[in-house]
Structure formats: structure tokens, C-alpha cells
Amino acid sequence: METIAPARLIETLSRRYATKQFDAARKIPGDVWSTLEQAAILAPSSYGLQPWTFVVVTDSAVREKLRAVSWNQPQITDASHLVVFCAKSNLVRADVDRYIDRIARVRGVSRDALAGFRDMMLGTVEAPGADHLHWNQRQVYIALGFFLSAAAMLGVDACPMEGFDAARYNEILGLSSQGLSATVLAAAGYRSAGDPSASMKKVRFDASDVIKRV
User: Fold this and answer.
1) pLDDT at 118
2) What residues make up the domain containing 139?
3) Helix (H) or strand (E) run with residue 65 in it
4) CATH code for the domain of 179
5) Total tally of structural domains belonging to the chain
């Protein structure tokens, strides 16, 4: 498998920034966008349960409504694509069984062979007082990180966003009725030549300040 050179990786990630102004006329090619979707799908999650749904919003009228409940931030409408990363509001036995069925089908094993793994997951999912929403939301942020990193490697600009009214998103997109909760956004496209944030030096603490070795 071909790998990226270490220096190239750092160069790519250093170029990435939270894009404030997108070129509204420039769209992400279909094959590139499909790759980004697959990158999000390939993100890890606890047990591999994937307690999320990624809502890709391309309808301009819907995006105008979402912008109004996102502090009127232009990225919502100007970016080529808008992704609403949603967490499942709850997890139940049926979610575990659906995942077990998927494993059995993909790996060609019997459900009986997966009984121990199933019981382990059920022990977590059905634990008294389990806060599924917050647990699932933490998994969603892992997928967001995968998406942002993949975008950078593909030369696509992106902006992670928490500045929005999640309850209104749930209402506008009909998420609550699907057992989903809007958690975080990612606008993706290509930076505008006039975005002043693009030329700002990236500010990070030195490795010695944030990495401890034991």
C-alpha cells in the first residue's frame, strides 16, 4: 500500500484551516465527494456500532433555512456541500442485532459465532442509566475528524461548525422523528481568494507543551 511521506502529511494538515469564506461558484467533483463520504463511513466507533447518520444537504432552499438558525454564517450556503453529523438519540437491542447481522454477512460467519460479542455490546447498551446520546455524540466527533483530515488530503477546504441551533436543525430536517440529533456540522468546498483567514499563520502550542511522555 502506498503511503504519504511524513513531511507531506504535515504540509497538508498545516494548509488546512477552518474556512470562513468559500468560493460559492466552485463545486466539489462527484468522485471527490464520494471519497469524502466513504472516509466518514470508515471512521472508527466504539464496538464498531457506528451510531450516526451523515445528512448531506444540497437543497439551496433548505440551506437558507439552516443558515438562519446558524447565526447567519455564510459557510452554510456558500460551501459546495454541507454535512450535518447526527448522533443516534438512543441505542437498543435492535441496533446491536442489525450490526451483528452485518458482520455475519460481510465476514461470512454465523450469528452463533458472534454471540459473545453481541452479549458484550448488549451489556453496554442496556446498562441501567446509560446515556446513549452523549456517548454517540462522542463517536460522531471521531467521524468529523476523519472527514476533515480526508478533505485536507484531497485538497478540499472545510469548516467544522458548532454555532447552530441543534433543536431547529432537528426540526427543519425532521431528525427527531428518525431518532437522530444534529451534533456538529462540516461545510466543505474551496476557499475564496478573499478569505483573510487563509493567509493567517496557524497557531498551535509547541509539542513540548501538549505531549507528555511516560
Assistant:
1) 98
2) 16-91+130-198
3) helix 60-68
4) 3.40.109.10
5) 1
Q: What is the pLDDT along the chain (214 residues), one digit of tens a residue?
A: 889 999 999 999 999 999 999 999 999 999 999 999 999 999 999 999 999 999 999 999 999 999 999 999 999 999 999 999 999 999 999 999 999 999 999 999 999 999 999 999 999 999 999 999 999 999 999 999 999 999 999 999 999 999 999 999 999 999 999 999 999 999 999 999 999 999 999 999 999 999 999 9
pLDDT (tens digit per residue) in 93-117: 999 999 999 999 999 999 999 999 9
Please check whether residue 171 lies inside any domain of the structure. Answer: yes
Phi, psi at 187, each rounded to 5°: -90, 135
Say if 2 falls within a structural domain.
Answer: no
Q: Is 154 a member of any domain?
A: yes
- DSSP 8-state class, residue 150: H
C-alpha cell at 174: 425532521
Please state, in angstroms and rounded to a whole number, the distance separating the CA atoms of residues 14 and 199: 12
Q: Does residue 118 contact residue 19 with C-beta atoms inside 8 Å?
A: no
Question: Is residue 190 in some structural domain?
Answer: yes
**Pairing of β 52-57 and β 81-88:** antiparallel
- Alpha carbon distance 106, 98 (integer Å): 12
Residue 32 CA from chain centroid, whole number: 16
CB of 22 within 8 A of CB of 161?
no
Asked whether 185 and 85 are in contact (CB, 8 A), the reply is yes
Residue pair 105/99 in contact (Cβ under 8 Å)? The answer is no
Q: Give the SS3 label for residue 175.
A: coil
